[in-house]
Amino acid sequence: MKLRLLLLISCLYLSACGAGRLVRFPYDVGGRSLNSPFAEQKPRVSGRYVVFTSDRRGSQDIFLYDMTNRALVDLPGLNALDMIASTPSVTEDGRFIIFHGVREGRSGIYLYDRDTRQLRNLTENIKAEVRNPTISADGFRIAFESSAKGQWDIVLINRNGQVLSR
Amino acid sequence: MPTAPAELDSRYADEQPALSGDGRFLAFVSNRDGMRSLLLYDLQQKRFIPLPRLNRGDAIAESPSLSYSARYIVYVASDRARPEIELYDRATQQIAVLTSGYRGWVRNPSISPDGRYIAFETGIRGQWDIEVLDRGTNIELDLLNRPRSR
């Protein structure tokens, strides 16, 4: 109730300045919605989907929320027990999710395909720290930061992990 | 404003990449030219796109996100008592502050490819949660040059 009131108030404030209105998605203490009693971070919105991280299951995992159906979408095989996942990004059709994963102390840029349920490390051959990946809404380009040259630089690849010229 | 294509591979740190929905434009935060700026690069024409009024001398613009053809750019601007989420329209070169009346701390904005929705983190409940702002259907959606369906 208190939350709904808060959201209503912020709604009024926002519509007063003409920015738009806040969408009131259900809040679920059981963790079956967009927001939960735990932290939700790094939202990326694309098409009808919002992809984000949350520690609602005791470890930091990636979740996909469907704004049209107002429900979470299953991501079988994405969240592994031995991986910390962060900074996800999703294509407009909701098929591909790219994210930063740390497994056994090594960071990688991972691609998850919802159609095949396959998870792939696209940066296995890069001998450097990588972070902050993002995928274009059409799914053809992926950009991330690499420390290969002793500073953060931006690298572009395709879904096969091939480096694209800039 | 950097000009040559080689400059994308700068001696300075480039961070926080964001791609337009069609993959043609790359926005990022850079420390080149002695200033922390938000830059927009056209990967097709291999040149930087000017963003008049976006980078101000008294503010830091960070965490960019782009719509489908990079018409709209959302980012966090830190020039006030607290950071605000702003929307830059390349067609009009106008900036709109989206969170001026919002009471919670905000960060990490993201705009949908059509430009209608903006998701961001809010600290209004004492932890980070997600808020989604709907700009409605009266705005000009970024639907130019889109393939009809995929």
TrEMBL record, chain A:
Domain of life where this protein originates: Bacteria
Show the InterPro entries listed in the entry. 6-blade_b-propeller_TolB-like (IPR011042), WD40 (IPR011659)
Signal sequence extent: 1-18
Keyword annotations from UniProtKB, A to Z? Signal
Gene3D superfamilies reported in the protein's UniProt record = TolB, C-terminal domain (2.120.10.30)
User: Which family is this protein grouped under?
Assistant: Belongs to the TolB family.
According to UniProt, the name of this protein is Tol biopolymer transporter periplasmic protein
Which organism encodes this protein? Answer: Oscillatoriales cyanobacterium SpSt-418
